[in-house]
């Protein structure tokens, strides 16, 4: 059950896009993948064709049920989605409060999926530190930090290095890795920052994703970038990153093994 947390000290950098496309890519390569949304924006589900009007999610349900797996939606393929759901401000506050106060709340909620053999879990988070990223970190196998190839991202690197995301180093199992997103090779600043990050992060930089208009178009059509535009630069970059991550996590893909079905709701 490798669990990958996609996070960043910075907002709007492409965390949700990277999380969704990583899930698509790993699923296409043969893994069974669960995408979990810990962001009240509830946007991750939109990458998998869940209708905007479908407000179901695990956060509201967690007020009465300790096992969150009953809120999983199926996409028809190898991908399963656990949406945050449409919640009131009070529900969000209560959820975050329980995450912060009850050390077993999240473990109980995810217990069923964490024990599911071979399931790869990709979790998406709101920007910056927060109760969800903090609570899940003990269970995480990898943190994937998404940054841009700009000076603002360079200035935020110390937030990661000084443990400002979860109060301790990201991550104690397979480590933490970085992706630079929305890079444009024609821009000097992007090239310079990429070179700087490569030097500073070394092997921890698992890849750079080109700024590519097919990303926004794929998002708008609720498809993966690969399915929307397989020949695009971003699709190529994401595939490489996904292969790198699969190898870091020792995820064996494409073995065609038939696994037990997950109990889900259809939409
Ligand atoms: N490689 C890319 N090329 C072009 N546009 C991109 C790329 N990656 C992401 N985007 C666009 O950037 C915007 C922000 O992406 P996304 O919502 O995934 O960021 P985020 O980090 O999850 O944001 P938030 O902090 O609000 O959760 C979206 O409009 C998305 O289509
Ligand atoms: Mg997001």
From TrEMBL:
This is Cellulose synthase operon protein YhjQ. PANTHER family: P-LOOP CONTAINING NUCLEOSIDE TRIPHOSPHATE HYDROLASE (PTHR13696), PARA FAMILY PROTEIN CT_582 (PTHR13696:SF52). Pfam families: CBP_BcsQ. Gene3D superfamilies: P-loop containing nucleotide triphosphate hydrolases.
């Amino acid at each position: 059950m490798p669990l990958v947390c996609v996070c960043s000290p910075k907002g709007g950098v492409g965390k949700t896009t990277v999380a969704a496309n990583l899930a698509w890519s790993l699923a296409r390569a043969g893994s069974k993948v669960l995408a979990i949304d810990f962001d009240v924006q509830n946007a991750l589900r939109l990458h998998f064709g869940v209708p905007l009007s479908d407000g179901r999610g695990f956060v509201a349900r967690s007020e009465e049920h300790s096992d969150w797996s009953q809120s999983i939606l199926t996409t028809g393929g190898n991908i399963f989605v656990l949406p945050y759901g449409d919640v009131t401000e009070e529900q969000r506050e209560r959820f975050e409060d329980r995450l912060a106060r009850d050390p077993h709340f999240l473990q109980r909620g995810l217990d069923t999926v964490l024990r599911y053999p071979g399931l790869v879990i990709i979790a998406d988070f709101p920007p910056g530190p927060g109760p969800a990223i903090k609570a899940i970190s003990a269970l995480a196998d990898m943190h994937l930090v998404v940054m841009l190839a700009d000076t603002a991202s360079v200035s935020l690197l110390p937030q990661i290095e000084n443990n400002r995301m979860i109060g301790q180093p990201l991550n104690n199992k397979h480590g933490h890795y970085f992706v630079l997103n929305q890079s444009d090779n024609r821009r000097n600043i992007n090239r310079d920052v990429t070179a700087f990050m490569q030097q500073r992060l070394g092997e921890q930089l698992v890849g750079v994703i080109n700024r590519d208009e097919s990303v926004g178009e794929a998002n708008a059509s609720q498809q993966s970038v690969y399915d929307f535009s397989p020949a695009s630069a971003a699709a190529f970059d994401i595939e490489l990153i996904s292969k790198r991550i699969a190898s870091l996590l020792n995820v064996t893909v494409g073995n065609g093994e038939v696994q037990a079905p997950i109990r889900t709701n259809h939409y």
